Amino acid sequence: MADAVDMDAFAESFKAFAIQGDTKATGKDMTNKNWAKMCKDCKVIDGKKVTGTDVDIVFSKVKDKSARTITLGQCKTALEELSAKRFPKDDEGKNKTFALIAGKKPGTTGATKAVKAGGVDRLTDTSQYTGSHKERFDASGKGKGLEGREDRAENTGYVGAYKEAGTYDKKVKK
């Protein structure tokens, strides 16, 4: 098969791509989405001889009929089939195809990056607060907690502004 290529490095790459984006994946089998990502990231798909459609067709050929994934052995078979298209007149085509993948890890090109500044800084700047919200922070910007709220509810059991609050025990005969 691919004697000149480090097959342990290939197996590690297979596992890395197999678990990409799936928290429940074990790394023993790979979905079609991850297979296509591996072929694209490792430049097996060149857009001329091997396309995304070719990759999908080969995946469907090598997987078991009722399965949704391929194993490492099936991946090797699929790559051998793609290498015949990618390097048609080259005897070392299989080795070159395996070498494209060996030692590679999935890329995160185009992934969303966290914003370091902007709206969050503006929204958490307590010096710009107005109205009742301004009273909830001290001069350093630290929150005052309950003390920062002027209208605190009193749980005395009496209606607000009741003139005789706290006189119940005096009226009750003992």
Topology (elements, then pairings):
Blueprint: H1 7-19, E1 29-31, H2 32-41, H3 52-62, E2 69-71, H4 72-86, H5 93-101, H6 119-123, H7 168-171
Name the CATH class of the largest domain: Mainly Alpha
C-alpha end-to-end distance: 100 Å
What is the N-to-C succession of helices and strands?
HEHHEHHHH
Low-confidence stretches: none
CATH architecture of the largest domain: Orthogonal Bundle
Task: Assign the CATH superfamily of the largest domain.
Answer: EF-hand
How many helices in DSSP terms? 7
The averaged pLDDT comes out at 81
The value of Rg in angstroms is: 33 Å
Number of E-type strands = 2
Which structural category fits the helices and strands? mainly alpha
Largest sheet: 2 strands, antiparallel
Region (Disordered): 124-152
Biased composition (Basic and acidic residues): 132-152
Organism: Branchiostoma floridae
Family: Belongs to the TPPP family.
Question: What this model shows, in words?
Answer:
With 174 residues, the protein is mainly alpha-helical. It has 7 helices and 2 strands. The protein folds into 2 domains: 7-100, Recoverin, domain 1, CATH 1.10.238.10; 115-144, no CATH class. 39% of the residues lie in helices and 3% in strands. It has a two-stranded antiparallel ribbon with strand order 1-2. The longest helix is centred in the middle third of the chain and has 15 residues, at 72-86. The model has no long low-confidence stretch (mean pLDDT 81). Residues 124-152 are annotated as: Disordered.
